[in-house]
Amino acid sequence: MEAEDVRISRKKPVYPVAPALQKYLRTYQRDARMPISYKNLLDFYETVPVIDKNGKDTLWETPLYPPHIQENLYNGLKIIYAQLKASGNTRIVEHKYIDRVEYCAFGNTHPFRIRIVNRLNDVYDYFYVKQADASRIYGLELEQIISPNPVNYMVDGQTLVEEHIVGIPGDVFAKSLMYNTDYNPKRIAKEFVKFNERCIITLLGDMRAYNFVMQITPDFDDFQFRIRAIDFDQQFYEGNPKVYMPQFFKDNLPYVRLCMEHLTDRTVLQYQQEERSSIVHRVRSERHRIAALRDVSNTEELSTSANVKQLREGYAHYYQNHHYLKCRTMTDIIELNVKNVIRQVKL
Question: Which of 157, 265, 303, 337 is the most exposed place for a label (fewest CB within 10 A)?
Answer without folding.
Answer: 265
